[in-house]
Design a protein that fits this description.
The protein has 611 residues and is α/β, with parallel strands linked by helices. Helices cover 65% and strands 10% of the residues. The chain binds adenosine-5'-diphosphate (ADP).
Length: 611
C-alpha cells in the first residue's frame, strides 16, 4: 500500500465510532428491534439456540451408531434392532435441524421487513421535523445520504448476522466440547488461528465502513449525474448542450474509483481468509492424524475417529461463520450509527407553546433583524426594521440577492434571526407554536411546488386536512383564484394527473404558478407571502391575478416580492432593499417624489429601448 493511501485510510478510520459509541448504538438498535417485535425476537432466539446445539447432538448420535456397528462386527453379530434407535434419532435431529434453519430464515425475513418499514417511516417522520437549514447545508446532505443508503436493510442484516453468529457460536462451542473429550489438544489448536482471523475481519469491517462513510459526497455526485441524465426537468438542456458524454465520463470516473477501492478490500479479505483457512485445516488434519494413530493403537474408538472427521469440518465452518458474522454484526452496527446520528439531530427552529388563535389578518413587526445563513459569515440581512399593519399589502423590491426572499423566509419562520426578532401580533415568532403559525400563512414561493398528482390535489394541498376529500370546496377555491377555466380545459378536469414523472398531462410554468396561487389562497391565512407570484404568468393571467388580487388579499396581510412594477402597483406600501438593508420605504407616489432608488428603478423600467 502506498504512503498516500495509508494516510487516506487512517484519516478515514478516524470516522469509525469508538467502542463506547458502538455499545450505545448497539443498545439503541436492539431496543428498537425489541420494541418492534419482542415476541419474534424471543422466537428467533429459541430457534437459534436449538440450531446451535443440534450439530453436536447429531455428532454424538453418529459416534454411538458407528461404535455400535463396530462392536457388532467385532462380536460377529448383526442386531438391526440395536441400530434402529440411533438411526431414528439421527434422522430426527437432522430433520429438526433442516426445519429449524428454514424457520429461522422465515423469522429473520419477517423481522427484517417489519424493521424496514419501521426504520424508513421513522426517517421520513424525523425528516419532516427538521429545519430547512438542515437540508440546505451540503455537509448535512452527506448524513442524509448515509442515512438513506440501505438503513432499513441494515437492521435486517444486523439481526441476521447476530442470529448467525449466535447459532455458529453455540455450534462451535458444543462441537469443540465433543471433540475435546476425544482429543483435548483441539482446544489449543483453535485460538491461535481464530483470534487473529477475528481481529482481521473486525479491521476489515472498519475499513469497509470507513470507505463507505468517506464516499457519501461522491455517492451524491453519482446520484446527481444520474438524475441530470434521467430527470424530465434536466433532460432538455442536457440534450441541447450534449452534456451526456461528459456526465457519463464523470459518473464513470467516480464509479471506477469505488470499484478499485472495493477490489482492494475484496482482495485483502480473500488473502486473509485463505491463509486462516489453510492454517486451521492444517491444525485439524494434524490432530486427525493423531486420532487415527490412537484409534489403531486402541486408545480411541472408530466412532471417535468418525466423529472427528465429520465434526472438525463442521467446526471449521462454524468458527469461520462466527467470526464473519460477528464482524458483520459489528459492521451493521456501525452503519446503524448513521441512523442514530440522523434521528438525534434536533431542529434548531424549535416550536414555541403560544397558540395562534387569532384568525384575522396579522400585524408583523420586524425588529432590528440581522441574519447570515448557517455556515456562512456573510450577513444577508443587516439591522432590518419595519412594521406591517393588519390587512396592509407591502411590496418588497430590490435587486437580485438583496435579501428579499430571505426576509420573507424569516417572517414565515423557516429560519430564526441571529439578532433581533420578528413579532406576529406582538408576539415573538419563537414563542408561537410553529405548526399553528405555518397554518396561518399562505404563500407562493419562488420555487413553488409542482406536485405530481391530480389538479385537485395541487389545490387541496394548501389545506389538505380540510380539502383533500372536499371537492366542492376545492372547486370554490379554484373559482376564486380563477383557475377554473384552465382546469375545465383539461381532459379529466380536477382529476387530471399532472406532472412529468407520473402525470398524463404536463402544465406550462405559468399554469403551474396559477395553481400555486390557488393553493396559497386555499388556506384560511392571516398572512399571504407572494414571492414573484407573476414571474411566469402571461400578460392575461397577470392581469387576472391583478384584478382578483383585492379579493385574494381581503382580510389578510400581504407581503409581495416582485420585480414587475405592474405587480408592485398592487401594494399599499413599498420597501426597497439593497444589500440586506432597507434603503427606502413609502407609497409609490412618495417614493417617486423622493427621487431615490425606487424612482431610479421605475425610470429604468419605463425607459424605452433604442430599437
Ligand atoms: P433576493 O430574494 O433579494 O434575490 P435572497 O434573499 O434570495 O435575495 O438572497 C440573498 C443572499 O443570500 C444572496 O447573496 C444569496 O446568495 C444568499 N442565499 C440565499 N439563499 C441561501 C441559502 N439557502 N444558503 C446560503 N446563502 C443563501
Amino acid at each position: 500500500m502506498s504512503r498516500a493511501s495509508r494516510e487516506r485510510e487512517s484519516t478515514q478510520l478516524a470516522d469509525v465510532p469508538d467502542l463506547r459509541t458502538l455499545f450505545a448504538t448497539s443498545f439503541w438498535g436492539w431496543r428498537l428491534i425489541w420494541n418492534e417485535s419482542a415476541g419474534l425476537v424471543i422466537a428467533i432466539g429459541f430457534v437459534t439456540v436449538l440450531r446451535g446445539v443440534l450439530p453436536a447432538a447429531l455428532a454424538l448420535v453418529i459416534r454411538a451408531l458407528v461404535n455400535t456397528v463396530v462392536a457388532q462386527i467385532n462380536a460377529g453379530v448383526a442386531d438391526w434392532g440395536a441400530l434402529v434407535p440411533w438411526l431414528m434419532s439421527g434422522f430426527a435431529l437432522a430433520a429438526v435441524e433442516a426445519v429449524a434453519r428454514l424457520v429461522n430464515t422465515y423469522q429473520t425475513l419477517r423481522l427484517g421487513d417489519d424493521l424496514h418499514l419501521r426504520v424508513t417511516t421513522n426517517v421520513m417522520e424525523h425528516a419532516a421535523r427538521l429545519d430547512l437549514a438542515f437540508f440546505e447545508d451540503p455537509s448535512r446532505q452527506d448524513l442524509v445520504q448515509r442515512t438513506q443508503q440501505n438503513t432499513g436493510p441494515r437492521f435486517a442484516k444486523l439481526v441476521l448476522e447476530t442470529q448467525t453468529a449466535a447459532t455458529s457460536l453455540i455450534q462451535a462451542v458444543t462441537l469443540l466440547g465433543v471433540l475435546a473429550v476425544i482429543e483435548p489438544r483441539v482446544l489449543w489448536a483453535v485460538p491461535p488461528f481464530a483470534i487473529p482471523f477475528f481481529l482481521f475481519q473486525w479491521r476489515l469491517a472498519q475499513q469497509r465502513y470507513a470507505e463507505e462513510h468517506a464516499r457519501a459526497t461522491k455517492r451524491r455526485w453519482t446520484a446527481y449525474h444520474t438524475s441530470l441524465m434521467t430527470s424530465p426537468y434536466s433532460v432538455p438542456e442536457v440534450r441541447l448542450l450534449d452534456l451526456g458524454p461528459l456526465l457519463v465520463d464523470r459518473f464513470r470516473e467516480l464509479m471506477m474509483e469505488f470499484r478499485s477501492r472495493d477490489r482492494a478490500l475484496h482482495r485483502r479479505n480473500l488473502t486473509g481468509s485463505w491463509v486462516a483457512a489453510l492454517l486451521t485445516l492444517a491444525a485439524f488434519w494434524g490432530l486427525f492424524a493423531h486420532v487415527t494413530l490412537q484409534t489403531i493403537a486402541g486408545a480411541a474408538t472408530v466412532g471417535d475417529l468418525a466423529i472427528f472427521a465429520g465434526a472438525t469440518g463442521r467446526l471449521q465452518i462454524a468458527l469461520e461463520q462466527v467470526i464473519r458474522s460477528l464482524s458483520g454484526a459489528y459492521e451493521q452496527t456501525l452503519f446503524v450509527q448513521n441512523l442514530r446520528e440522523f434521528l438525534g439531530v434536533q431542529p434548531l427552529v424549535a416550536s414555541g407553546a403560544v397558540p395562534v388563535d387569532d384568525r384575522t389578518a396579522a400585524s408583523i413587526r420586524v425588529e432590528n433583524v440581522s441574519f447570515a445563513y448557517p455556515g456562512s459569515e456573510q450577513p444577508v440581512l443587516r439591522k432590518v426594521s419595519f412594521e406591517i399593519a393588519k390587512g396592509e399589502t407591502v411590496a418588497i423590491v430590490g435587486e437580485n440577492g438583496a435579501g428579499k426572499t430571505t426576509l420573507a423566509k424569516l417572517i414565515a419562520r423557516l429560519y430564526d434571526p441571529d439578532v433581533g426578532r420578528v413579532l406576529w401580533n406582538g408576539v415573538d415568532l419563537r414563542e408561537l407554536n410553529r405548526k399553528a403559525l405555518h397554518s396561518r400563512i399562505g404563500f407562493v414561493l419562488q420555487d413553488f411546488g409542482r406536485y405530481e398528482g391530480t389538479v385537485a390535489d395541487n389545490i387541496a394541498f394548501g389545506d389538505w386536512r380540510r380539502l383533500l376529500d372536499a371537492r366542492p370546496q376545492v372547486e370554490k377555491v379554484a373559482r376564486t383564484a380563477r383557475v377554473d377555466r384552465l382546469i375545465g380545459e383539461l381532459k379529466d378536469g380536477y382529476d387530471t394527473l399532472i406532472g412529468r414523472r407520473f402525470g398524463t398531462v404536463n402544465l406550462s410554468g405559468g399554469q403551474w404558478q396559477q395553481l400555486a396561487v390557488a393553493r396559497a389562497s386555499a388556506r384560511d391565512a392571516s398572512l399571504l407571502i407572494l414571492d414573484e407570484p407573476t414571474s411566469t404568468l402571461d400578460a392575461r393571467s397577470e392581469f387576472e391575478l391583478f384584478s382578483r388580487f383585492r379579493e385574494l388579499a381581503a382580510g389578510r396581510t400581504t407581503i409581495l416580492i416582485s420585480h414587475r412594477f405592474s405587480t408592485i402597483a398592487m401594494a399599499d406600501r413599498i420597501i426597497v432593499m439593497e444589500e440586506g438593508e432597507i434603503v427606502e420605504m413609502g407609497s409609490h407616489d412618495e417614493l417617486i417624489a423622493a427621487s431615490g432608488k425606487y424612482a431610479a428603478l421605475c425610470a429604468l423600467h419605463r425607459r424605452q429601448l433604442p430599437w
